[in-house]
Amino acid sequence: MFKTWLLSLRLHCTLSRTASTKTTRLLSLITSYRRPHLPSGSWPISVVFPLSVRRFRSQKVLAMAERAHEHSNHLAAEHSPYLLQHAHNPVNWYPWADEAFAEARRRDVPIFLSIGYSTCHWCHVMEVESFENEEVAKLLNDWFVSIKVDREERPDVDKVYMTFVQALYGGGGWPLSVFLSPDLKPLMGGTYFPPDDKYGRPGFKTILRKVKDAWDNKRDMLVKSGAFAIEQLSEALSANAKSNKLPDGVPQGALHLCAEQLSQSYDSQYGGFGSAPKFPRPVEIQLMLYYSKKLEEAGKSGEAKEGLKMVFFSLQSMARGGIHDHVGGGFHRYSVDECWHVPHFEKMLYDQGQLANVYLDAFCITNDVYYSSLSRDILDYLRRDMIGPEGGIFSAEDADSSEHEGSAKKEGAFYIWTSKEVEDILGENATLFKDHYCIKPLGNCDLSRLSDPYNEFKGKNVLIELKDTMALAQKYELSIEKYLEILGECRQKLFVTRLRRPKPHLDDKVLFEKNEESIFVYFFVYLAFLFLLAHTYLTSCFPGNCVMEWNCNVVSCKSF
């Protein structure tokens, strides 16, 4: 009974405490997935309330700012780890501020706006290829005012320009690259651009020249085109917002529509919703849990079971896949393939909080410790690696790191293994471990054509569980308890070895909004733990039926 109440409370809190921002947003997002939402307000955008940020400035970040460099720009006095990463590019970057806008007006040149975050893999790639390139820097400095924005410090700015790019070009992502007029109206944009023309597509240098030419010779057309796009986009989204506006609370019909749309995108072979690249989408999963609970309350247990089946298979597939860090805990950002195998290796705080939340919900429904162990796996990772000295939880860990000190950074280097490394570390238990996690001498990143299209992980292995654990225990003539014990010991040995590798960059910003989700989960884990203690105490100390009496300040207990 307590678990039913706890689940109801958790789902109610998760959905209704943020009805205006989470549930309502879901209803429009799921029915027209990938369509962005333009924030209210007129153009040009003014400075909106920035997200409160408490910064833990690590010695590493301070060193980035203080080290002597050949180049220095207007970002050198900033505190954001992402902005500090670009403080010594040859590009004359400005932060998002009046000084930059005034400079663009004074010079009568367009603005190049680049938005990203410190653990973004493709942001690093574009920095190395373009922003550290003297030729590209000269074009940017001569023809534009260049502005860098950390999307986690200014989500308001990111939301506006991401909406523009998504709506006009059908997709988005980071780094976000947008060209603006001096009054901040978008002219054109995109995401990552390679430096040179390739595969019939213009490179970044070509794009810079084309925007420069259009600004000098076809300015009216360029500005009118951008203004017209914004006008059409605003009208369309305004009409959509009115037609889809929801009353307080979530009506059953709206929940049914969401669940139906999600069901249509369900991958029955590999679990999850949608196709590659595959994101965990924990909020949508939680909505399916909520809807299934409502169906069960309405006596429609058959339909409820179908929804729960999708949810549980998706959660299990993610946990067994390479998107889950089997050695160190936590989950990576997304899977590049459809089978949850090869991830994009960065770890984001907001993913951890939401996934711990949904795995705990699954435990409350099923009473299966498999799900509670995964929730604890995530929280242990956060407690060990992501909590700062003052108690705040850091934002993210990078996807890229060096294979050894001084070498160039590569995606996933911290997390992947060769077959020989595993054999050297684990000795006699290597065969069992390799069998369990599908480790091969030539590497295992070949489950899908999308897993490693450029052979970046040739000869490497990303741990994934594809075989039945009980069957493997029988194969090695071990009890399931002994088999799991050996696996745990092996993972611990790999964990210790991994600690000697260069770690990925840690974005040690502490974002209050992202901390809230994780703290929320810790709170409910604590509640569940208290319940289990109370249940154990009462059932062991007071067998049978028990009556507690309070009379005249004396407590008595009678068991029968």
UniProtKB/TrEMBL annotation:
<dbReference type="InterPro" id="IPR036249">
    <property type="entry name" value="Thioredoxin-like_sf"/>
</dbReference>
<dbReference type="InterPro" id="IPR004879">
    <property type="entry name" value="Ssp411-like_TRX"/>
</dbReference>
<protein>
    <submittedName>
        <fullName>Spermatogenesis-associated protein 20 isoform X1</fullName>
    </submittedName>
</protein>
<keyword id="KW-0732">Signal</keyword>
<keyword id="KW-0472">Membrane</keyword>
<keyword id="KW-0812">Transmembrane</keyword>
<dbReference type="InterPro" id="IPR008928">
    <property type="entry name" value="6-hairpin_glycosidase_sf"/>
</dbReference>
<keyword id="KW-1133">Transmembrane helix</keyword>
<feature type="domain" description="Spermatogenesis-associated protein 20-like TRX">
    <location>
        <begin position="73"/>
        <end position="233"/>
    </location>
</feature>
<dbReference type="InterPro" id="IPR024705">
    <property type="entry name" value="Ssp411"/>
</dbReference>
<feature type="transmembrane region" description="Helical">
    <location>
        <begin position="519"/>
        <end position="538"/>
    </location>
</feature>
<dbReference type="GO" id="GO:0005975">
    <property type="term" value="P:carbohydrate metabolic process"/>
</dbReference>
<dbReference type="Pfam" id="PF03190">
    <property type="entry name" value="Thioredox_DsbH"/>
</dbReference>
<feature type="signal peptide">
    <location>
        <begin position="1"/>
        <end position="21"/>
    </location>
</feature>
<dbReference type="GO" id="GO:0009507">
    <property type="term" value="C:chloroplast"/>
</dbReference>
